[in-house]
Amino acid sequence: MITIMSLGAVGALQDGRPILEAARRPDALRTQTPPSWTWLGPVERDETAAGTGWRLTVLLDGGGTMFADTHIDRDGWAYVVGVVAPPSRHAEVALVADAMLDTWRWIAPLASRY
């Protein structure tokens, strides 16, 4: 499964904490996760058509699920593109997410199109 979500404006409060810029979000997330999560490798910088992203990969409780999140900021807004899959299919699903990010296009806000 691939998900795309906006976290809100960088610096805005979410659950009483400010939304950090993309380069800092993955490392901050590492300090806030349950000890049963296994972090796989370091945070990786990823140049995509959507912008510069920082990717983290985690094996969740018991190892049955893996996710990789790519954090990207655009015009002051924080976004996450996530891939969630069983470890056996993760590489295949991650390739689809990478292909999607390679074709990304930002569309101007509706009000500015007229």
Explain this structure to me?
With 114 residues, this protein is of the alpha+beta class. It is 19% helix and 40% strand. It has two helices and eight strands. It has helices spanning 25-30, 87-102, and strands at 2-9, 13-14, 17-18, 38-39, 44-48, 51-59, 66-74, 77-85. Strands 1, 4, 5, 6, 7 and 8 form a six-stranded antiparallel β-sheet that branches. It has a two-stranded antiparallel ribbon with strand order 2-3. Strand 7 (66-74) and strand 8 (77-85) form a beta hairpin. It is globular, with a radius of gyration of 15 Å. The N and C termini lie far apart (35 Å).
How are the secondary structure elements laid out?
Elements: E1 2-9, E2 13-14, E3 17-18, H1 25-30, E4 38-39, E5 44-48, E6 51-59, E7 66-74, E8 77-85, H2 87-102
Antiparallel strand pairs: 1-8, 2-3, 4-6, 5-6, 6-7, 7-8
